[in-house]
Write a structure and sequence with these properties.
The chain is an all-alpha fold and 255 residues long. The chain contains seven helices and no strands. Helix 2 crosses helix 7, helix 4 packs parallel to helix 7 and helix 6 packs antiparallel against helix 7.
């Protein structure tokens, strides 16, 4: 058994190492790789992000428009049953989009992982002399499939959200226009419009939430995969999807 002082010293050293390490990001790893292999420059940018954050995507991730009740909904029970569903769903939608935003912002693989930190610095000090060709082919193929799924579910989510927001805007507008005292037939027309808009919004909620869940799954898989990819690139794995190489069994990939 190792002496207690040795164990404590090792623990303190590990803590200091984690605290003192610089921020390692997907981009910093790619920059280091491009520095060693200029011919690869920009060919692995798909490791840095799954897609460009277009204004349309950024808008999708913003909090959804809220229903502005001016006192009429309590008098319109059938409409309120729908609007209550919308109100409850908007909270769930916003939470899901916050999670998606965090997954898109993920940039630090294996944060706090001492072994990864050590291997990264060994990579910086070494000269890469192994072929990455087959691994890069595997990575690109996996990325293309994930990117295709991301595009599909993001496009569908954007479409569903636009429909929901459009109908919520019409609900708010109609509530403001709904007169307090006027002809019964006019009031009935306003109520019919509210019922229509609320129903249309509700019909979009379930498919929208399903798409958001699919988006989260894609991004979680992407972040997990690209963490494995950079471990492969710095020599911690034989291939992009293989297990980490055990210490003491590292191949002669560097000199």
């Amino acid at each position: 058994m190792k002496p207690l002082y040795f164990i404590l010293f090792s623990l303190l050293l590990s803590i200091q190492l984690v605290k003192s390490q610089e921020v390692i990001t997907f981009i910093s790893i790619l920059e280091a790789l491009y520095s060693q292999k200029p011919q690869l420059t920009n060919k692995l940018n798909f490791v840095a992000a799954i897609a460009e954050l277009t204004p349309e995507i950024e808008d999708e991730l913003q909090p959804i428009t809220k229903i502005e009740d001016n006192g009429w909904l309590d008098q319109l029970q059938y409409v309120k049953e729908y609007t209550d569903q919308i109100v409850a769903a908007t909270k769930t939608i916003d939470e899901a989009n916050q999670e998606i935003t965090s997954l898109l912002a993920f940039e630090k693989p294996n944060e706090g992982d001492i072994e990864f930190f050590q291997e990264y610095h060994s990579f910086l000090k070494s000269t890469l002399n192994r072929s990455l060709k087959s691994g890069l082919t595997e990575m690109k193929s996996a990325f293309q499939a994930m990117h295709q799924h991301f595009d599909y579910y993001m496009s569908a989510s954007i479409s569903h959200k636009k429909e929901i927001v459009k109908n919520i805007v019409m609900i708010n507008r109609t509530l403001l226009q709904l007169p307090r005292k006027t002809h019964k037939k006019i009031i009935e027309n306003y109520i019919a419009d509210l019922f229509k808009y609320a129903g249309q919004a509700v019909s979009e909620i379930i498919p929208y939430l399903q798409n958001l869940e699919k988006l989260k799954d894609v991004l979680e898989n992407y972040n997990s995969a690209r963490t494995s990819w950079v471990e492969f690139l710095i020599g911690m794995r034989h291939g992009p999807s293989s297990a980490r190489i055990s210490k003491g069994m590292k191949p002669r990939n560097f000199r």
